[in-house]
Every structure is written in structure tokens, then in C-alpha cells.
TrEMBL record:
Residues 48-172, 534-647 form the Peptidase M16 N-terminal domain. It comes from Planktosalinus lacus. Pfam families: Peptidase_M16, Peptidase_M16_C. The lineage of its organism: Bacteria, Pseudomonadati, Bacteroidota, Flavobacteriia, Flavobacteriales. This is Peptidase M16. Belongs to the peptidase M16 family. Keywords: Hydrolase, Metalloprotease, Protease, Zinc. The keyword Zinc applies. Residues 205-383, 677-852 form the Peptidase M16 C-terminal domain. PROSITE patterns: PROKAR_LIPOPROTEIN. InterPro entries: Metalloenz_LuxS/M16, Pept_M16_N, Peptidase_M16, Peptidase_M16_C. GO terms for molecular function: metal ion binding; metallopeptidase activity. It comes from the Bacteria. SUPFAM superfamilies: LuxS/MPP-like metallohydrolase (SSF63411). GO terms for biological process: proteolysis.
């Protein structure tokens, strides 16, 4: 399958697997899957693909530019990603800042991403904004370069630098990719540097660089445009010609040929990581590029080596030697070359020499023992389900069609890829293992916590990376909007002003069916036959609310143990049984419930539920599994100490809820509480799982009769009494108006976590408060994002929100700003909170109403989103038409309603401020804010 790795963008990494226009047949099952598309090419060379899907009144637009970091030159690294940021700033016929602000206000979402080989821009909007999105997208594509100014250039430099600080410099193991690339690939290879590049290179970028890059690579003939959704094909063709037809073709961009690499010797490197709390080993072997004949066999090899509890690497590293909670191996193919990666993030204090020896032994076992046909069959079954899930949203369809067309020359290539994967044999797997892995040279990294060099693999050479020094803010870092560019508009035979909205689509709730079983379990369902899939979630009330302080984390521990086999199946056998059905099942615990979530092909739904019943009613309670899970939890507890955001969040909860409330403790517990939990404790906690506290939510290609029949055995065999859930009262330990400072030495950013107690999601004010917060912190169009990122360049993102909880939840404002902008960011946030209510306008009311009502048209497209509808109904006792009712509430709110919510719940003087950052440079700065300051350690304890 295709993996778009490390897309540096405002959103997240995308994992996409999809299908094409032609009809494909599963010869074994007799089932047919189709995904129709139409492809044509404009006179300027732009290849356009249209896909019609009228299941929701929304449209997705994706543009792939065939230029990534592999087109850069040493000294100008990170430029493809930097240009992606610049492209969103301004264009000739669209107002300044509109690309980031207007699309969310239309009820849509937009983003972009860059990887080694390409750049993607995409939007999803309600269908009434379809032509508007063509206007804004085509203007970004073909009419932005004249609008670029020095001020915009300097501001976006700061944004990208903040992104690098957040994702790389201030993150554990953030430098590992840079170390690997610079040693795996020669200095002149296009993969020698990371996608985000280096800060000195970014800082040196000029306007001439931007223009040269655009003119070279942003021609229409170097791109693919995909439009998918509720469209009319003939009308869309006319609109595409109108909006995109005049974009210049651009110079010919020479196709890059594959550039696989080889290593003359193995290189062992070590690195002391400022943030890491756990040692990590990676081994990276050079392999093959995308579309190479060996790619699928290498992908299957990765799954066979570590993708199950029966795999050799997992058994050796996790079960036998107990060196780590997990191990991963995978093939990563790009346009020019590929890598096979093995990664082990070990338990605290583990010697990576032992990890390396154990890996070598595991490889030797694989060479002699191999794998079973059943394991190979399981992988192929899982891929079938992934195939369907990969096309479960319009946006994913657009991604795959665009990517396979631009890089494979065939929008339908995914069908071939699926067939190639299904055709992989055991001989293929062993052949690629022998060709690329066995006795071959590789890059190995040992990343260890500060002061733990003894944990690195012996003989490793210290690796070096460029690290930014935290300094006081200088004049070049103070950026702003600046003057708009002066230019002559590019002539056009069309009117390129903003087109009007089409007919407004309104969200209509899907039909919800219900049932009640004799054991007290409720059922809520939505039928959806678009794909042959079923998604379900069993919600059992309780979760962390049933923990006790001395046994904090026991709900989470119990849930994890339910994944570890049954009375008749070991953990490995259970995993295999699930995989052979092409299904997934996972038990986990959250603050207020334990959930058993899963998905399957519709034809395997009954068999999947039989396994769910077995897991729920017949846990294995194996002592070895218990010890393994305990170690995994303790390792994760140690690992969260390396995450400044986690440190801030946990300290915030401790202060907001108070020590008498169970939410003041982490969901997975503390080192002390988890160490004291026994297997008997889990068995006792397990008795809290009662059908009388349970609702079964199901969405997909299944009806009420089939669901009720599939649950009949569970109805008969699962009984339990009503369980009383403790009633907690949040009593803040924090003093309102106080700033709490947590020192993480050498932080390149400061995490700001600000807020106060607010309300339960069951409160009648909850939906109104969410509406009232939208202008302040609701995504990229919110004031926080627009001010701190767009205007000031202090951060990569800034948001505010209220978690969806039955218990009283807090109002939270969260961002990570560059260290030397900590004080000005705090000052901006404080002023914004103080003035938010008084400055709220009628225009803000109208904007919120329009944005959120239209947003609903795309918010419930996926099976998971529809499951969330059912969960909201059951958890908060909402009606079957609650979304429509809440839309009416929003439409009926006036200015006084919005101001009332702000005055009641978003009061700056009642909030606490948490800053996690570098004390040496920032502590004296934050004192200037004028608030009382209390120092905390990373566990939220007051430092006396």
C-alpha cells in the first residue's frame, strides 16, 4: 500500500489506500467493487480526474504538484515545504488571508502537505461552495506569485521554523530522521536531507528563490487535479476549463529516474536526545523505489517480521526478552529509492546492545523457521478491509486517484497494487529478504536520554545535528502582515472575481434504529450500504471513573488485558483469528467508559462478534501477559515525561480537578499505582463490566435483524448487576489568575495551557458554549490561529475547546510558541480573552451560524463519524434528531446569547496559565506578565 510519509502540514500524516474506475473482482468471494472516474487533459497539460459520489452533499478537490524535497539543492533544503506554506498566503483575485480563513467559514476544511516527491493541496466543502473552491484553488495555483511580499516571506519563515521546533527540535527522537538520511544517502542525493530542511536554509530564502521555484515547478503540466463528490460531470468540465484553463503550462520538468543507494559498510551512530526518556534503536536498509517489482513483497515481509504476536521480532524482543513494549518493521518506498526500517523503542534503562543481539537472533530464527501460510493469508485478508476503508471518504478517493495518476501514470494503479500484494508468495518474501536484508549493510542509530551514553550500541559513532540556540527575540523575528504587493493583475478572458454560493445544503440526520436486549444492553444502529463494511463500538460506562487513587490506571490496565487472548486462544492465536477475518477489534479505556471497538467486512460481521464475545466473557488472565502489559504501561508512563504537551495537560488536570477527583490522575496511572496493581486486582475490576451499563453502537452494511441475531449469544451469556459509578466533584487546587511554570531545559518552544472549569457536555449550555468559542479558537479561521500564527508567526497552531465529557470539563486554550515569543504570546492571549466578550459582534454571530451549519454537511461522512452520532445519543441522552435541533438552536442564538456564554464560562481572571518551557531564558520574561507565579515539576507538584 502507498504511504505518504511525514507530510509537513497543518494537519497530520495521511495513510491512504484506494481503488480505481475499473471493475475488480474478488475471484474467491465473487464480490465486485467499482470506483468510477473520468480523466481528461486541458490544453495547458493539466490532467483532471472526476469522480462522482452523491452520498453526501460535499465536494473534495485535491491538486498534486510533482515537486517535493527531492527537487531541492544542498543549501536550499526545505524549500518545497516552505513554498507550500507561501502558496496559502495570497493570490491576485482572492483577498489577503482568505485561503486560510474563508474556506472554514464556508463550512469546509483545507490543507496542504509536502513529502519527498510531491506537494498536495486539498479542500472539502459543502457543495454550495463548489465553484468558490475552484476559484480559490485555481488562484492559489496560477495567480499567487505576483502577490508575494518580503513581509509575507519573513512571516512564513517564522511559521515554518515554529513547525520544525514543534515537530523536530522539541520532540523526542525528532532528529533521528535527519541523522539517518544524512548517512544513508550521499550528499548529492535528493533524499540526503529532511522534508522540512534546516533552519539556516529557511532563513536564507529570498523572494527570488520563491519566484524561481514557482516558475520552474508550478506549471499546469506538472500537476494532477482531482474533483470528487456531489458533482455534475459536464458542468464540472466547463468550470475546470474556466478556472484552470488559463494557468500557464510551465517548462518541461524532467522526470527523475530511480536512484537506489547501496552501503559499502554498516554505519552505527549514537545521539544524546534532550527530550527522550527511553532508548531507541533503528536499523535502516536501502531497498527499492515505488512501483518496483519487489515493493509488495518487502511490505509483506515487514508485516511478517513484526506485525503480529507470532512474528519473530515481536516474540524475541517483547515476549522472550521483555526489552520493549513493541517492535516495528516496514518498507517505505518513494519515487527514487526505498528503505526497510526496523525500530525498537526500548524500556527504560535497557541496553541497546542487548536489543541488537536479540534482533540478530530473531533474524536467524526467521531464516531457519520462516513463517506459516496462515500468517501470509492473514496479511492478505487485512489488506482487503484496508482497501475498502481507504475509499470510505471522498477526500481519500481524491488523494489516491491524484497520487497514482501523477506518480504511476494510472489513476487505476491501486487495483494492480492490490493484485500484486495478493500474488506475493513465500518464495517472493524469502527472496527479497535475502536480497535486501540478510547480511546486508545498514544504518543503525542509538538514541538515548541525556546522561545515558552507556545504553548506546558499542562502537557507535556520535552523530551531529545542527541545533538552534535559544536566544532573546531579535528584530528579524518580529513579523507582521506588512504592505500588500503592488502588481498588475494577470489578464484573463474570464471574470475571476468570487463566484456566488450555490443552493445551501442542510444536514439531515440519518435514520437511527434501536433495540433493547434482555440482559439490559441497548443497541443503536445506522444502516449504510455504500461499502461492504461494518463498524461497531461497545461502550461500557465507568472507565477511569471506577479507578481508585491507589490503583489509578486499573481500568486502562484491565482493558488492555482483554486484548491478550481468551480462555481458548493465546494472544497470538486471537490476533490471528481476527486478522484472518480481515477485521480489527480493540479494547481500551478512557475517562468515562471502556470501549470495545471494531470493524469488519459485512460478510464477516457475525464471526467477528463471536470473537468479541469470547474476549469479553472469557479473558485469558495469563500471568506472563499481565507482566508484559504492566511493563508496557510503565514504559509509556516514562515516555510521556518526554512530551511537553503531555506534561502541561497532566498538570492542568491536576490543578483543575483537584486531588480528590480521579481525573487529577493520568488515565493510565502513575508509576507507583501501576507497580502496585496485581492480576487479582484486574479480575476484581473486571466484575464492573455489566451489560446494564452498556450500549452497542453499529454502523454499516447490516440491518437490525442481523445485528440482533449476531448478539443473541452475548445476550444470553452476559449478565451483570447495575454498577454504581462514583459521583466526583471537581475542586480546583489552582488559584485563579496564577501562572504555573514547568522547566524543560533547552526547550525551543514553550507550551501554553490556559483554562478553567466549565461544564458537562450534558449541560444545556454545552452546545451554546461550543458555538460561542468558535470565533476565538475554532480552527485556522479562529482569532488565536489568525493572530499568533498568521499575523505574528509565533506558533504553528493555536486553538481553544471544551472536551466532550459527562463530568464537568474545562475550557482549554492550547498552543506551542517559539521560546523567545513566550511573553508576547501570553500578552496577546490575555488581551484576547479579556476583550472577547465585549468585542463580539453581530458579524461574528452570522459567521458562526453560517460556518457551523454548513460544516455539518461534511462532518458525518465516514462510518466513524456516524458512530460518534450514536455515542452522543446514548451517552448524553440526546434525541435521534439532535444535530438538526442543535442547528436550530444555533440559528436562534442572538448576540446577547453569545456574549452571555462568554461572560459565564470564558472569564480570563478565573483562568490558570501553565507554561512548559526553558526556565533559564523564559522565567524572568513571564514574570513581566504580572501574574503570581508558582513553579511545578514535570509531575505537577509544587516546587517548594
Amino acid at each position: 500500500m502507498k504511504l505518504l510519509k511525514y507530510l509537513f502540514m497543518s494537519g497530520c500524516m495521511l495513510f491512504m489506500y484506494s481503488c480505481n474506475k475499473t471493475t475488480t473482482t474478488d475471484e474467491d468471494k465473487g464480490e465486485e467493487f467499482t470506483l468510477e472516474y473520468e480523466k481528461f487533459t486541458l490544453d495547458n497539460g493539466l490532467e483532471v480526474i472526476l469522480h462522482v459520489d452523491k452520498s453526501d452533499p460535499i465536494v473534495a478537490v485535491a491538486t498534486v504538484m510533482h515537486v517535493g524535497s527531492n527537487r531541492e539543492k544542498p543549501g536550499k533544503t526545505g524549500f518545497a515545504h516552505f513554498f507550500e506554506h507561501m502558496a496559502f498566503n495570497d493570490s491576485e483575485n482572492v483577498p489577503v488571508g482568505a485561503n486560510r480563513k474563508m474556506v472554514p467559514e464556508w463550512g469546509g476544511s483545507r490543507n496542504g502537505g509536502t513529502w519527498n516527491d510531491g506537494t498536495i493541496y486539498y479542500e472539502v466543502v459543502p457543495k454550495d461552495a463548489f465553484e468558490k473552491i475552484l476559484w480559490i484553488d485555481s488562484d492559489r495555483f496560477g495567480y499567487m506569485i505576483n502577490t508575494v511580499t518580503e513581509a509575507a516571506l519573513e512571516r512564513e519563515k517564522q511559521v515554518v521554523k515554529n513547525e520544525k521546533r514543534q515537530r523536530v527540535d522539541n520532540a523526542p527522537y525528532g532528529y533521528t530522521d535527519e541523522i539517518i538520511r544524512s548517512n544513508l544517502y550521499p550528499a548529492d542525493h535528493p533524499y540526503n536531507w529532511t522534508v522540512i530542511g534546516s533552519l539556516p536554509d529557511l532563513q536564507a530564502a529570498t523572494l527570488d528563490d520563491v519566484k524561481e521555484f514557482y516558475n520552474q515547478y508550478y506549471g499546469a503540466a506538472n500537476a494532477t487535479l482531482v474533483i470528487a463528490g456531489d458533482i455534475d460531470v459536464e458542468e464540472t468540465k466547463k468550470l475546470v476549463e474556466k478556472w484552470f484553463g488559463e494557468i500557464p503550462r510551465g517548462p518541461e520538468v524532467e522526470q527523475m529516474e530511480p536512484m537506489p543507494v547501496s552501503l559499502e559498510t554498516t554505519k552505527a551512530l549514537s545521539f544524546e536526545d534532550n527530550f527522550a526518556k527511553l532508548p531507541e534503536l533503528r536499523m535502516v536498509f536501502p531497498t527499492v523505489e515505488e512501483f518496483h517489482k519487489d515493493q509488495q513483497a518487502l511490505e509483506v515481509l515487514g508485516q511478517l517480521l513484526s506485525g503480529s504476536k507470532k512474528s519473530h521480532l515481536y516474540k524475541s524482543i517483547v515476549e522472550d526478552k521483555k526489552l520493549a513494549p513493541n517492535v516495528s518493521s516496514y518498507q517505505s518506498s518513494n519515487e527514487l529509492a526505498g528503505e526497510f526500517v526496523i525500530r525498537v523503542r526500548a524500556n527504560e534503562g535497557v541496553d541497546l546492545n542487548e536489543v541488537k543481539i536479540t534482533l540478530d537472533d530473531a533474524f536467524a530464527k526467521f531464516e531457519t523457521e520462516g513463517f506459516t501460510d496462515t500468517e501470509l493469508q492473514r496479511i492478505k485478508a487485512e489488506l482487503e478491509t484496508q482497501l475498502y476503508y481507504g475509499v470510505s471518504t471522498i477526500l481519500n478517493k481524491a488523494f489516491q486517484l491524484a497520487q497514482d495518476n501523477e506518480f504511476g501514470g494510472d489513476p487505476a494503479y491501486v487495483t494492480k497494487r492490490a493484485k500484486l500484494t495478493q500474488a506475493v508468495t513465500r518464495e517472493d518474501v524469502m527472496r527479497v529478504y535475502n536480497t535486501y536484508i540478510q547480511d546486508k549493510n545498514y544504518i543503525m542509530t542509538s538514541v538515548f536520554p541525556k546522561g545515558s551514553s552507556n545504553l548506546a550500541v558499542a562502537g557507535s559513532e556520535p552523530a551531529t545535528v545542527w541545533e538552534e540556540e535559544v536566544t532573546a527575540m531579535n528584530a528579524s523575528e518580529e513579523v507582521g502582515q506588512g504592505e500588500e504587493a503592488v502588481y498588475n493583475k494577470t489578464p484573463s478572458k474570464h471574470d475571476r472575481s468570487e463566484p456566488p454560493f450555490g443552493e445551501t445544503p442542510l444536514f439531515k440526520m440519518p435514520t437511527v434504529w434501536t433495540n433493547e436486549l434482555s440482559n439490559g444492553m441497548s443497541i443503536l444502529g445506522i444502516e449504510d450500504y455504500e461499502l461492504p463494511l461494518v463498524a461497531f463500538e461497545i461502550s461500557i460506562k465507568g472507565g477511569q471513573l471506577l479507578d481508585t487513587p491507589e490503583k489509578a490506571g486499573i481500568a486502562s490496565f484491565t482493558a488492555r488485558m482483554l486484548n491478550e487472548g481468551t480462555a481458548t486462544k493465546t494472544a497470538a492465536e486471537l490476533e490471528e483469528a481476527i486478522g484472518l477475518l480481515g477485521a480489527n477489534i480493540n479494547v481500551r479505556s478512557s475517562l468515562e467508559e471502556i470501549t470495545i471497538s471494531g470493524a469488519s467486512l459485512a460478510r464477516n460481521f457475525e464471526e467477528t462478534l463471536k470473537l468479541v464475545e469470547e474476549m469479553l466473557l472469557s479473558p485469558r488472565w495469563d500471568e506472563k501477559d499481565f507482566e508484559k502489559i504492566k511493563q508496557e504501561i510503565l514504559t509509556s508512563i516514562k515516555g510521556r515525561e518526554a512530551n511537553p504537551n503531555a506534561v502541561a495537560s497532566l498538570s492542568f488536570d491536576k490543578l483543575i480537578y483537584g486531588k480528590e477527583h480521579i481525573f487529577s490522575l493520568p488515565t493510565n496511572g502513575t508509576e507507583e499505582s501501576v507497580t502496585g496493581i496485581t492480576l487479582d486486582d484486574l479480575k476484581q475490576f473486571y466484575t464492573n463490566l455489566s451489560p446494564r451499563l452498556t450500549t452497542f453502537h453499529v454502523v454499516g452494511a447490516v440491518d437490525t435483524d442481523k445485528v440482533t441475531s449476531a448478539l443473541s449469544d452475548l445476550e444470553k451469556n452476559w449478565n451483570g448487576e447495575e454498577i454504581v459509578i462514583p459521583n466526583y466533584k471537581a475542586i480546583e487546587e489552582a488559584t485563579p489568575g496564577t501562572l504555573y511554570f514547568i522547566d524543560v531545559p533547552n526547550s525551543k518552544q514553550s507550551v501554553l495551557y490556559i483554562g478553567k472549569q466549565a461544564l458537562s457536555a450534558a449541560d444545556e449550555d454545552a452546545v451554546k458554549l461550543n458555538y460561542a468559542n468558535e470565533i476565538l479558537g475554532g480552527g485556522s479561521s479562529g482569532m488565536l490561529f489568525q493572530t499568533l500564527r498568521i499575523e505574528k508567526g509565533y506558533t504553528y497552531g493555536a486553538y481553544s475547546f471544551i472536551p466532550n465529557r459527562s463530568e464537568v470539563a474545562p475550557f482549554i486554550l492550547n498552543t506551542s510558541v517559539r521560546s523567545n515569543a513566550t511573553l508576547p504570546s501570553l500578552e496577546i492571549v490575555r488581551e484576547m480573552l479579556l476583550n472577547y466578550g465585549p468585542n463580539f459582534t453581530e458579524e461574528d454571530v452570522a459567521l458562526t451560524q453560517n460556518k457551523l451549519i454548513k460544516q455539518n454537511t461534511r462532518a458525518y461522512e465516514s462510518l466513524g463519524a456516524k458512530l460518534n452520532i450514536l455515542k452522543d445519543i446514548s451517552k448524553f441522552d440526546k434525541s435521534f434528531t439532535y444535530i438538526e435541533e442543535e442547528q436550530r438552536v444555533l440559528q436562534n442564538m442572538d448576540l446577547s446569547d453569545f456574549k452571555g456564554m462568554v461572560d459565564k464560562y470564558i472569564q480570563e481572571e478565573e483562568m490558570i496559565y501553565i507554561v512548559v518551557g526553558d526556565k533559564a531564558t523564559q522565567f524572568n520574561e513571564v514574570k513581566k506578565l504580572g501574574k503570581p507565579i508558582v513553579e511545578l515539576d514535570i509531575y505537577g507538584n509544587v516546587i517548594k
